[in-house]
Amino acid sequence: MTEPAEQSPGTPSAASSPEQEALLLGAAEQARAALTEFSGEGAVGEYLGVSIEDAASATHRFLADLPGYRGWQWAVVVAAYPGADHATISELVLVPGPTALLAPQWVPWQDRVRPGDLGPGDLLSPPLEDPRLVPGYVATGDPLIDDTALELGLGRRQVLSEWGREQAAQRWHDGDYGPGSAMARSTRRVCRDCGFYLPLGGALGVMFGVCANEMSADGHVVESEYGCGAHSDTPQPPGTGSPMYEPYDDGVLDTAD
After folding, report:
1. Number of independent structural domains in the chain
2. In terms of pTM, does the model score above 0.90?
3. Which residue ranges does UniProt annotate as crossing the membrane (predicted)?
4. Which of 42, 149, 155, 183 has the most CB atoms at less than 10 Å from its CB?
């Protein structure tokens, strides 16, 4: 919808008669008085101009002087029928101006969680029909998942010794992705039966794997007894909307000066 061109009082327009046009354009103070009665003293700023809507109505605009509404405007529609000797207030509303401070675009709550947002005690179920997960009886095509891989030299001149493996295992067990971490202690589910758990090959695969969930420990080596709220078996929240908070209508809130 195209915004009507703003006019200053006295500018010719398509009103039915010069008298009626003058009546509509000259109702600025009447519009300000109506706004002051509606919003209280101090909420109405400078006069921004008037635009003719049609032969019987015009819109007067004022800067809104309200906390949190920078750049917003009051719009007051006045009306006068042909032959009337005064204009009447038809509507008044708060509208965003060209420099208004607006809220960010709405994002559904289930799309707001980003990698790194998961904290101890949080629960995050995978999306329905998550393409990253398949039933356990379906072959994945990755032998490290489907079969027990044997550690071979693979042409390397040196491989990790038993002592080196034990040192690495101890560090990983005691680290941020071990069973003693705050995240693991906050849930009863563990990585060893999670669909995002990719077990390591060789001897370390008995205790450790890599997390493939981008919302959790993505790319990190995790202990099989580690766990988090984004386990693949985390149930969907009941109902719709946010599982923790009910929506509220700020239109029913009272403001105090």
Report:
1. 2
2. no
3. none
4. 183
* Dist CA 108 CA 130 (whole Å): 18
Task: Please count the other Cβ atoms lying within 10 Å of the Cβ belonging to residue 91.
Answer: 12
Domain that holds residue 37: 18-96
Q: Are residues 208 and 140 in the same domain?
A: yes
Give the largest CA-CA distance in the chain: 102
Is 200 part of any domain?
yes
The pLDDT tens digits of the residues spanning 133-191 come to 766 555 545 554 444 333 444 445 556 677 888 888 999 999 999 999 999 999 999 99
SS3 87: coil
Judge contact between 151 and 203, C-beta under 8 A: yes
Say if 60 falls within a structural domain.
Answer: yes
* The amino acid at 25: L
The pLDDT of 228-237, averaged and rounded, is: 90
Domain boundary among 48, 64, 96: 96
Between residues 41 and 192, the one the model is more confident about: 192
- Cα separation, 213 vs 221, whole angstroms: 12
In order of 77, 87, 91, 246, the CA distances from 19 in angstroms are 18, 11, 22, 53
Tell whether 82 and 147 lie within a shared domain: no
243 and 237 in contact (C-beta within 8 Å)? yes
Distance of CA 241 to the CA centre of its chain: 12
Cβ atoms of 78 and 99 closer than 8 Å: no
**CA dihedral of 74, 45, 58, 8, whole degrees rounded to 10:** -140
